[in-house]
Automatic annotation (TrEMBL):
The keyword Signal applies. Residues 51-108 form the PRC-barrel domain. It comes from the Bacteria. This is PRC-barrel domain-containing protein. Keywords: Signal. Residues 1-23 form the signal peptide. It comes from Paraburkholderia bryophila. InterPro entries: PRC-brl_dom (IPR027275), PRC_barrel-like_sf (IPR011033).
Length: 143
């Protein structure tokens, strides 16, 4: 499996290099989809830019953590946000998965009503599925 992945990666690098590859920029070059799909992409938003590393506050406006990840269920819906709590310079962080419907957006900020840092730290830590790579769903083609 790893050999096939390496061969595919090498072939992709060779193709890109031979075509003078440049970064894809939405709206400036075709992305391999229909016009409708490209327009939908332009109107969409980036989870990385909009949510990941964004602070999460409680009702007292205390920062209680930050968004670390967003979990997408097999039906393609965002179901949980993984919140990192505590830690210093990336050490000792505690990760908890919180259902998306528990969050509120107020004035462009994420709130978790009734939560505290201590309460989140007391929740059992979230762990990624160790079989994630083996059970990872196939990517859907834009074509």
């Amino acid at each position: 499996m790893k050999a096939n992945t390496l061969i595919c990666a090498a072939a992709l690098v060779a193709i890109c290099a031979s075509q003078g590859a440049v970064a894809q920029v939405a709206g400036l070059q075709p992305l391999g989809g229909t016009v409708e799909q490209t327009n939908a992409l332009l109107k969409g938003w980036s989870v990385r830019r909009a949510l990941v590393d964004e602070p999460v506050y409680n009702d007292l406006n205390d920062k209680i953590g930050s968004i670390y990840d967003v979990i997408i269920s097999p039906d393609r819906k965002a179901t949980y946000a993984v919140v990192s709590v505590g830690g210093f310079l990336g050490m000792g962080k505690h990760y908890v998965a919180i259902a998306i419907d528990h969050f509120e957006i107020r004035d462009g900020n994420l709130f978790l009503p009734g939560a505290t840092k201590d309460a989140l730290k007391s929740v059992p830590e979230f762990e990624y599925n160790k079989l994630e790579k083996a059970t990872k769903p196939h990517k859907v083609s834009a074509n």
